[in-house]
Design brief:
Blueprint: E1 9-11, E2 19-21, H1 24-52, E3 57-59, E4 62-70, E5 89-94, H2 102-116, E6 120-128, H3 131-134, H4 153-156, E7 182-183, H5 189-203, E8 213-217, H6 221-234, E9 241-246, E10 250-252, E11 270-275, E12 281-285, H7 290-300, E13 307-310, E14 313-316, E15 326-335, H8 353-367, H9 371-374, E16 378-386, H10 397-405, E17 408-412, H11 415-425, E18 429-437, H12 447-473, H13 477-480
Parallel strand pairs: 1-3, 5-7, 8-12, 8-13, 13-18, 14-18, 15-16, 16-17
Antiparallel strand pairs: 2-6, 4-5, 4-6, 9-10, 9-11, 11-12, 14-17, 15-18
Helix pairs in contact: 1-2, 5-7, 6-12, 7-11, 8-12
């Protein structure tokens, strides 16, 4: 006979109560203590329950949270786009994996304390930790499918809850709870946990390897060049790069160490050229299509990168373009459709000056061309992104007319999605594409035509992306994370 779930005792770990902190390092240390205590409790009882069956009680542990209350209307430095709350009141956010986000949390908490001159409160939230996420960091443990265990999992442990795992905050539709507590961060702990699990699945690398600067590409050719560059800089002790991580979490520090092939290539493999402070470069091969682009950026966004840039191939739409020319997007025609429900098409996606300048300067540096001469190989204009890879096979009257009216100079399937999600998630974004075919002018992407192009242009294009990221890395954080991506009443955390 199954026990009545309403009558079961709920057991929780004995952890410290809420406390106030004016030292961000001590605040994060308490977050780590609370999180590790909660997940250890769930893992231990999960393992025991899987061996012995239903324990006759429920096990529940809670995410830690950061909470701050301000009472002053004093105006914070108006140049700042983050690090302060918009108005007096109580603001809070649940936290997961404080070990992974330690530097980020110390930075954001430190800014709050500095700008408002009040302590932050660290304690347990009222949001339970799903057992799936609690055991996710232990490779020896896994949660069975429903029905595989001798008991119903949700009768004993909490499971993921879509009510706390959505994008309402970043989409601007979040409803305040009855007590009026406002969100302190863009993502809840459950939303972050969900994306961390998805990232490990889709990219076959641990989220801990991801760096603050992310390059997206839609071709495998760039991966080999990225690895070659990684080996080159690892051979230089003054480069600042310390290791290279490939699919399957294979990490090398010696430039001559071979990388073994993995048995199964993931959907969107990621490669990480790491620096000790996380300011290195991650390359993600998202493949082709806006759905992949949305999936990748949906999940990478929770890591709060400082910039992401698309460096892929595109169709050139102007007869004056040549194969191998570059396109620097300053506007996007969104025909990809995958984000229409989250970000209406009437929302403008602006070009970001900091990214545009970094990319243009990188092109000039890599090509040794300047000013007017640079126009021979690079166009700045609208990039159209579509959701139909074979758009050329449709009646040309409609598509070509729309492309001409939009003043588009290039077409691909990912750039608008990446830019739009960057805008939505407040992650600085940009696009530099390379023309690989001209379908409107009889130059199709065929094997014989493409081979020479790939050999000569991929290395140059990738290096431009890397140089741009290195420029952005040296830029003050407050400059790249500017007010352009912030709405009327933003969360204090980036």
């Amino acid at each position: 006979m199954r026990p009545n779930q309403n009558d079961l005792q709920v057991r929780s770990p004995d952890l410290p109560g809420p406390d106030s902190f004016t030292d961000p390092k001590m605040a994060v240390a308490r977050l780590v203590e609370l999180y590790e205590g909660a997940t250890r409790f769930l893992c231990e009882h999960f393992s025991d329950t899987m061996q012995k069956g239903h324990p006759g009680c429920r096990y529940r542990a809670f995410y830690p949270e950061i909470r701050i209350t301000t009472t002053s209307h004093a105006k914070v430095d108006s140049r700042l786009s983050f690090g302060h709350v918009a108005r007096p009141g109580t603001h809070a956010t649940t936290i997961t994996r404080p070990d992974l986000f330690r530097n980020y949390l110390e930075q954001q908490i430190g800014l709050l304390i500095l700008n408002h001159e009040v302590p932050v409160q660290i304690g347990l939230s009222d949001t339970p930790i799903p057992v799936h996420f609690a055991v996710a960091n232990d490779p020896s443990m896994s949660v069975p499918q429903e029905g595989a265990a001798t008991f119903t999992l949700r009768d004993v442990f909490d499971v993921p809850d879509l009510n706390t795992m959505n994008d309402d905050i970043v989409n601007g539709i979040y409803k305040l709870p009855p007590d009026g507590t406002e969100p302190l961060a863009a993502f809840t702990a459950q939303r972050v946990d969900y994306s961390l699990a998805r990232l490990a699945h889709y990219t076959a690398t641990d989220p801990a390897h991801f760096q603050n600067h992310v390059l997206f590409t839609n071709y495998q050719f760039y991966v080999s060049e990225f690895e070659a560059y990684a080996r080159k800089v690892l051979a230089n002790p003054d480069s600042g790069y310390v290791s290279f991580v490939s699919t399957g979490n294979i990490e090398i520090t010696d430039p001559d160490t071979p990388l073994s092939l993995v048995d199964k290539v993931p959907q969107m493999p990621a490669y990480h050229l790491k620096r000790a402070d996380g300011s290195g470069i991650t390359l993600v091969n998202i493949g082709v299509g806006p759905s992949n682009a949305k999936t990748a950026t949906d999940h990478i966004a929770v890591l709060r990168p400082h910039a992401w840039i698309m460096v892929g191939h595109c169709a050139g739409l102007r007869n004056s373009q040549s194969l191998g020319d570059f396109v620097l997007a300053h506007a996007y025609l969104r025909e990809d459709k995958v984000l229409d429900d989250d970000l209406p098409v009437w929302v403008p996606i602006p070009a970001l000056a900091e990214i545009q300048i970094a990319l243009q300067q990188a092109v000039a540096e890599e090509t040794q061309l300047e000013d007017y001469d640079l126009k021979r190989i690079m166009r700045t204009g609208t990039v159209a992104s579509v959701d139909n890879r074979n758009w050329e096979l449709r009646d040309q009257t409609g598509p070509v007319q729309r492309l001409s009216q939009s003043r588009a100079v290039a077409l691909d399937m990912e750039s608008a999605t990446i830019a739009a999600n960057g805008f939505r998630f407040r992650v600085p974004y940009g696009t530099l594409l390379c023309v690989s075919d001209k379908p409107l002018h009889g130059e199709l992407k065929l094997p014989g035509m493409a081979s020479d192009f790939y050999k000569t242009q991929v290395a140059r294009h990738l290096m431009i992306g890397i140089r741009a990221m290195e420029r952005l890395r040296d830029m003050p954080l407050a400059r790249i994370h500017s007010r352009k991506l912030r709405s009327f009443e933003e969360t204090a955390f980036l």
